[in-house]
Design goal:
This protein is of the alpha/beta class. It has helices spanning 15-20, 58-71, 90-93, 98-109, 141-158, 172-182, 203-208, 229-241, 255-264, 275-286, 292-306, 316-324; strands spanning 31-37, 44-46, 54-56, 75-80, 114-119, 162-165, 191-196, 245-249, 269-273, 310-313. Strands 1, 2, 3, 4, 5, 6, 7, 8, 9 and 10 form a ten-stranded mixed beta sheet that branches. Helix 5 links the parallel strand 5 (114-119) and strand 6. The radius of gyration is 20 Å and the shape is globular. The protein starts with 14 loop residues before the first helix and ends with a helix. The structure holds ligand PBG. Ligand PBG binds at residues 118, 120, 122, 130, 166-167, 202, 205-206, 211, 218, 274-275.
Length: 325
């Protein structure tokens, strides 16, 4: 029996009804906020391509982290852009380097805020690639994962509540897990950027993290945007290697992948609403072409509806504030 007996609009007729039958909830509890740390003191430098986002020196990052915690967001992820860049990624390997300092400072300033550490080489290498580059000009996977494990150990020692490898090298989760466990850090979780696409939406981030590749691109290690089965293979391998959470990145253009990953695994699924997704909304809102608040809440609700348990978003503290009011 269809219309006129059946009228789906009945449960849509008022906000109390819509609230009652709403299938997806957005909560600050599910949000993680990225922080960009740079050398110096008293630095709070606007990122041109990401209005509202700043590069912060260590003590500024700790101060901002307190505001983020006060907004109700439970976690941040730290990206560092050290001044010194070389082929060995020395700045990231330094146990007291910029990222390690920032992690310790943020944990000291707000002990209850979870601090995730992005683990990659691109911010510390002179060529800007996520792994070491051999003399032949190709990415040396196996040498890279040894360095990544060393970097992850530094960040865990500095107090990181989780390490998040974003490099897309093969075998890095296992290498990091072994290195952490050997050092007695068997309680530090690994958030694997298991499904990271070679995306055009990372452009603004590369300005913020000063990590654009000097030559070539990242397509020999990041996933081809056309592939979804390969994404499932990557998550399965990373979980086998010991990943505690898996990430899909970017989020908006890959909602189908989020749904498929959510159905395929038992661990929490994280989605990263990346810099380009942020900047598109900001740019259109600044011109009055789109309602920023409505657009942001719609994108995040869509990412949750697709199956993401957690979302990394540059909008996180703002959204937490909106959800409270
Ligand atoms: C690099 C890294 C990137 C992002 C997070 N980690 C960019 C890249 O691969 O070039 C992108 C995040 C964003 O765009 O917001 N390891």
């Amino acid at each position: 029996m269809g219309f006129p007996h059946v009228r789906p609009r009945r449960t849509r007729q008022s906000e109390p009804w819509r609230r009652l039958v709403r299938e997806t909830q957005l909560s600050p509890d599910a949000l993680i906020y990225p922080l960009f740390v740079v050398p110096g003191t008293g630095v709070r430098r606007a990122v041109d391509s990401m209005p509202g986002i700043f590069q912060l020196s260590v003590e500024e990052a700790a101060r901002h982290a307190r505001e983020v915690a006060a907004s109700g967001v439970p976690a941040v992820i730290v990206f560092a852009a050290p001044a010194h860049k070389d082929a060995d990624a020395s700045a990231a390997r330094d146990p007291h380097g910029l990222a390690a300092q920032a992690i310790t400072a943020i944990k000291t300033a707000c002990p209850t805020l979870l601090v995730w550490a992005d683990v990659c080489l691109c911010g510390a290498t002179d060529h800007g690639h996520c792994g070491h580059v051999s003399e032949a000009g190709v990415i040396d996977n196996d040498r890279s994962i040894a360095t990544l494990a060393e970097v992850a150990l530094n960040y865990a020692h500095a107090g990181a509540d989780a390490v998040a490898p974003s490099d897309m090298m093969d075998g890095r989760v296992a290498a990091i897990r072994a290195r952490l466990d050997a050092a007695g850090l068997d309680q530090t979780p690994i958030v694997s950027y298991a499904v990271k696409y070679a995306s055009a939406f990372y452009g603004p981030f590369r300005e913020a993290a000063e990590s654009a590749p000097a030559f070539g691109d990242r397509r020999s290690y990041q996933l081809d945007p056309a592939n979804a089965r390969e994404a499932l293979r990557e998550v399965a391998l990373d979980i086998e290697e010991g990943a505690d959470l898996v990430m899909v990145k970017p989020a908006g253009p890959y909602l189908d992948v989020i749904t498929r990953v959510r159905a395929a695994v038992q661990v929490p699924v994280v989605a990263y609403q990346v810099s380009g997704e942020y900047s598109l909304i900001k740019a259109a809102a600044a011109r009055g072409w789109i309602d920023e608040r409505a657009a942001v809440l719609e994108t995040l609700t869509g990412i949750r509806r697709a199956g993401a348990d957690l979302i990394l978003s540059y909008f996180a503290p703002q959204v937490a504030q909106w959800l409270r009011t």
